Sequence to fold (474 residues):
Amino acid sequence: MDLLFLSKRIYLGTEENFINGGIIVSEDGIIRKVMRTPQEVNSYLYNTESQAVFDFENMVLMPGLIDVNVHINEPGRKDWEGFLNATKAAAAGGFTTIIDRPTNAVPPTTTLAGLRAKTSTARGKIFIDVGFWGGLIPDNLQELSSLLSAGVMGLQCSLSHTAEPVNKEFPAITTEQLHDILCKLDDNVVIAVHAESALQQPVAANENEPKRYESFLRTRPSQMEINAVQAITELALKHKKKHFHLLNLSSNEVLSLIKDCKDKGAQLTAETCPHYLSLAAEDIEDCRTEFKTQPPIRSKMNQPALWEAIRTGCLDLIASDHSPATAGPKCLTYGRTRGNFLNAWPGISSLQLGLSIIWTHCQRYGLGMQHIYKSMCENPALLCGLERFKGKIAEGYDADFCIWNPDEEFQVSPDMLQSSIKSTPYTNQRLRGVVHATVVRGLHVYQQYESFGQPLGKILLRKTSQKVVKFVRM
Fold:
């Protein structure tokens, strides 16, 4: 029996306005037809028997969101956050697909064995669909072909050291090493890069005031991102058949480099994160290590240019870089170590809140629903080679929907978060935009005020005759 999803505000993304209509979904979760008028819906219902109907009335029904930058710490660090809670949090935020970073698990996803450990651990625990990045580190060249053939979305590396203990498991790579490896990879492979490079003369931390945010911020100036993005854009212009993706950019000073590289024909995409668009360094109080991340949250003056870059398409995606950790590594336990920004794990927990954060702030910068669709649905699907069945409401696509009320407000509290880590910089903030339901392949995986059902998400592996699909610039 087919399913029928109704709303007076269906947002396809391909048209400027909402449509008042319905979506017919097959039993196996594929969109059969999009009906664009109430008359078409009424005619269909009149001529069809035993139709299962879900009427969301005035709620916005849009494609399910896709987050390409999520740290799931299982296997190995399940206490930080495993697949069960991470995918619950994603579903509660309207996300129907997330892509796991390779860095924080033990083992990391730098070998075929590591990928198999990830997928076997995830099966039976995920409420939404999950794909995986493969890791690119200095000594795993022999593993890369196997990882790509096995279906990772691309290869992810870092140009700067990760915090301990992860750095031992996922060491940084140099641009020289990366260049040598690129020469040995097939064309069109996606290389995702954490773009910070160490300075020749590092800025010393203020060891006398470790509980002040500025003591940490000064150690990671914008120049680290500028140096890294400069190096990657040079590689992208040398290797134009490789697709480079810049992860979690914080500094508006790199935007001109990105635009110039794109204009010269390189396959380059870039993302920023909700925290860089909504939080400001000058507002961070002493000891609030929930705000620590890398690259760091910068000043308010940094934000307008980032929003403008999303509006123009210079920045292609918005992704969470969700990286929760327990109270000990985050220096949130009571005692002498509490609030030490220099020692705390750099990661922000915000996966469930991404849509609401962006919607709360975007309109003051001239952005609207179409920019959320582009940066959080369509372009993430393109990046990961999922654009033939994810990221759109169209015939033949998975029936992945985010149903939400953009006019409703709520206050963030720890008890509402599905993540296993409740500490977030957004606690007590008032946000706009409430997710009421999330549908994955026709199945209601999340409904507000109701308990979760069974974890019926699927493992997504990149299936192409080539290793990846070329990103189509918009």
Remarks:
- The domain at 62-384 is CATH 3.20.20.140 (TIM Barrel).
- The chain has 13 helices and 17 strands.
